[in-house]
Each structure stands twice: as C-alpha cells, then as structure tokens.
Amino acid sequence: MNIQIINGPNLNLLGVREKSIYGNTSFDTFLEELRKRYPAITLSYYQSNVEGEIINKLHEIGFSYDGIVMNAGAYTHTSIAIADAIAAINTPVIEVHISNVHKREEFRHKSMLAANCKGVIAGFGMDSYRLAIENFLTA
Question: Site annotated as Transition state stabilizer: where (predicted)?
C-alpha cells in the first residue's frame, strides 16, 4: 500500500512554531514513528509552502497511490485550486488538521477542500495523521 502525506505552508516548522498549538515534535521525527508503526506501508512525505507545487504533487501521484493524507494548512480555507485538484484525481484524500480548527479563529471553520475529500480529521494533534492512515487500512 502506498500512502502519500502532503503538508502545506508553515508545517515545515512543526516542533518550532506555536508549540502550544502544534506541539514540540518535528514532522520528520513523527514520520519516523509512523514508518516504524506501519512497516508494510510505503509512506511518502511531501511538504511545500507553495500552492502550485502542492497541486503538481496531487497531479503526480493522484492516479497511482492508494491514499493521500493532506494537511493543507491555511490553504484549506482559501484554495479553490487545491480543491479542484483533489476533485480531478482518483486517489482518495483525507484532510487532516493537528488542531481543532473549530476552536480557533472563525476563518478556519470553513474548508474549501472538505467536500472533495473522503473525510476530515481534526483536533487530535499529530495523531490525526495516524487516524487517517488507519482509515485507509480498514477501507
């Protein structure tokens, strides 16, 4: 099974930025833990702060992977282009968020992507990614 994790803007700073919201662990450290937990899965990782690069990655893998776990960061709330890219591909996408976006600023309550995703997981910290992977395993 091939699962791609895609992180959007500012998520390269996990473990450094706003630790009270996002925690102390870098994504690279967390990814190592996921790979150890799921040795039978090929977990690929991609992060970009650039909207067009995220769209290009979706196009590149969106017809050959078994699942995509996507935390589009702030693009979740603004990007019709990423929503359209998700709609255009065959690989199912699960939208994830580390924080509970509904307990945060009002603008974070609306996802432009959710309607084109298999589901949304938010508010479980980094464990949101694991929960998405578990869904692909049981689907």
Answer: 17
Per-residue pLDDT, 12: 87
> Amino acid identity, residue 106?
E
By annotation, the residues acting in catalysis are: 22, 97
In the chain, what are the domains? Answer: 2-138 (3.40.50.9100)
Residue pointed to by tokens 């979740």: 76
For 87-101, the pLDDT digits (tens) are 999 999 999 999 877
Instruction: Check the annotation: does 98 bind a ligand.
Output: yes
- Alpha carbon distance 27, 130 (integer Å): 13
DSSP string of 71-99, one letter each residue: E-GGGGGT-HHHHHHHHH-SS-EEEEESS
- Distance CA(120)–CA(40), nearest Å, equals 24
99 in a labelled binding site:
yes
What letter represents residue 13's amino acid? L
The helix/strand/coil state of 96 is strand
The DSSP letter of residue 93 is E
